[in-house]
Design brief:
Length: 497
């Protein structure tokens, strides 16, 4: 979807004359239309106000009504979305309004639209923020998974372009939004792809294609022999039960100066998680194709910032494995020496994400020598128990880094919340037979996973994002959410601003 701005003259009739398939407006039911959008009230000769008077406007945020061939307008359709009560307006409500409008737009036959949702007041938010968020939400609603399923013949077409008024700062906002939307789509597409297609090798090849496509983005792929030579035994142990060989992918973007240390993202890429020998129950096991969403979001984020040419050095390292039960699988009881030299007693082969991240973090700390590193992982079911699908969990001992990530999440309406990584949790992963075991006790499952990873951060500034709840949208249509590409892109953009 192309996102553009239109420069209007100061002529107040401009809204009425826009030639487009669909004009999108957000209207509340508390103020006269003439106060909300005077141009619209005037051009429509009062019919929108009559709708309001008759109680025909949607009351709820994101509920819509679409009028065809509306009198007085140059647009073929007028899509009206409700705003909910004005005193309840927030970043999230604003996002819901634009997502709802996007859904109705996608369900219509319109392929071009002009969007006036940014005219809404959102406390503390600038025009460029409102444009960026509306554009991302419209693109989000326009996404359809179609890689292994043909759309029906009468399915409405994808939206080709959406324009916004050229309010102050809008040009930069639409540029950024377009690239972030591309990264979000990449992340969702990878998350949605079935595990027989989206294997470690597939993801590695996709990363290589991206590097080929984007000038200045470079890639290295390590195969099993190369990882063996580096003693990445924890990562290799997880993949050894699968016929699909493991990979480590390293993408590099050098938009910053040569002496600037890079920021590293490290993604969990378990392309399918059966649990291994500690096998998962059969119900909903198919959902574990999404266990590579940490990797997908890291790839989507570096794609977005590379495409926007961000003046920052960024690395993306993703550990790609499939966790299968097999005669060659790693077992509960195994003691494995990780790349760092620390030994791990495997007590549950389903706690595989921390195994592969242990080596990926060590590798990143030693080879990238980053300014700071953030890992992203669908790591624990406990995180879904804690936060449901609303929040990404942030764990770090670095208060400043936590602050940056939480703030970036708020700004992107891609929210995160912090969990403690207190030293007092560390004994929960002590082992009699190794330096640590790969599971904790019965409580604090997300935190003990974070404590495990902390032992592999090699003294670097580091944070862990558990996206087990936020990465997937359950319900209809279920899909990878594209999170936290918004949070991460915003975080990186903020480093340059
Ligand atoms: N990928 C799962 C985490 C997960 C589970 C995410 C359910 C979303 C929904 C992870 O590899 C896993 O299996 N974790 C175990 C850890 C446990 C064995 C300590 C879990 O959460 O059950
Ligand atoms: Mn698992
Ligand atoms: Zn997993």
């Amino acid at each position: 979807m192309q996102i553009t701005t239109i420069q209007f003259s100061t002529d107040s009739s401009a809204v009425a004359t826009i030639q487009t398939d669909c004009l999108i407006v957000a209207l509340n039911t508390e103020q006269p239309i003439a106060e909300q959008l005077p141009e619209l009230a005037e051009a429509t000769q009062g019919f929108v106000q009559r709708m309001a008077d008759a109680g025909e406007l949607p009351r709820t945020a994101g509920k819509t009504v679409t009028l065809y061939h509306p009198t007085g307008l140059g647009a073929d359709r007028l899509l009206i979305t409700g705003t909910g009560k004005l005193n309840k307006m927030s970043d999230q409500v604003y996002q819901a309004i634009a997502l709802g409008a996007g859904k109705a737009l996608r369900d219509s036959q319109a392929v071009r639209a002009h969007c006036l949702i940014p005219r809404l007041e959102v406390a503390g938010r600038s025009p460029s923020w409102k444009i960026q968020q509306a554009a991302l939400a419209l693109d989000h609603s326009d996404y359809r998974y179609d890689l292994t399923k043909k759309p029906k013949d009468d399915a409405p077409p994808a939206t080709a372009s959406v324009s916004f008024e050229d309010l102050e700062g809008a040009g930069a906002a639409v540029g950024r939004a377009g690239h972030i939307a591309t990264g979000v789509r990449r992340c969702r597409m990878l998350g949605d792809l079935p595990p027989n297609i989206c294997t470690p090798v597939y993801v590695a090849e996709l990363a290589a294609d991206l590097a080929n496509d984007i000038e200045g983005l470079e890639v290295d792929v390590l195969d099993e022999d190369q990882m063996q030579a580096l003693d990445m035994n924890a990562l290799l142990a997880v993949g050894q039960g699968s016929v699909n060989p493991s990979r480590l992918v390293h993408l590099r973007w050098r938009g910053g100066s040569a002496d600037q240390k890079p920021i590293a993202m490290v993604g969990k890429g378990v392309t399918f998680d059966t649990g291994g020998i500690s096998i998962k129950p059969r119900e909903l096991m198919e959902q574990m194709k999404f266990d590579m969403c940490g990797a997908a979001s890291a790839i989507g984020t570096i794609e977005s910032i590379a495409r926007m040419g961000l003046e920052l050095n960024v690395d993306c390292v993703v550990a790609l494995v499939e966790n299968m039960p097999d005669g060659k699988s790693y077992r509960p009881g195994d003691v494995i020496t990780a790349m760092s030299g620390k030994t791990i007693e495997v007590q549950n082969t389903d706690a595989e994400g921390r195994m592969i991240l242990a080596d990926a973090l060590t590798w990143t700390a030693r080879n990238v020598e980053p300014d700071m590193m953030v890992d992203i992982a669908t790591l624990t079911g406990a995180c879904v128990v804690t936060f449901g699908h609303l929040a990404t969990a942030v764990m770090t001992q670095d208060d400043e880094l936590a602050g940056e990530l939480l703030e970036a999440g708020l700004e992107a309406a891609d929210r995160a919340w912090r969990l403690p990584l207190w030293d007092e949790y560390q004994p929960l992963i002590d082992s009699t037979f190794a330096d640590m075991r790969n599971i904790g006790g019965s409580g604090a499952g997300s935190i003990t996973a974070g404590c495990f990873l902390a032992r592999f951060a090699e003294g670097q500034r580091w944070a862990h994002l558990d996206i087990a709840g936020s990465a997937w949208r359950w319900g209809k249509p279920e899909s990878a959410s594209g999170r936290p590409v918004g949070l991460l892109s915003n975080w990186l953009i903020n480093k340059v601003a």
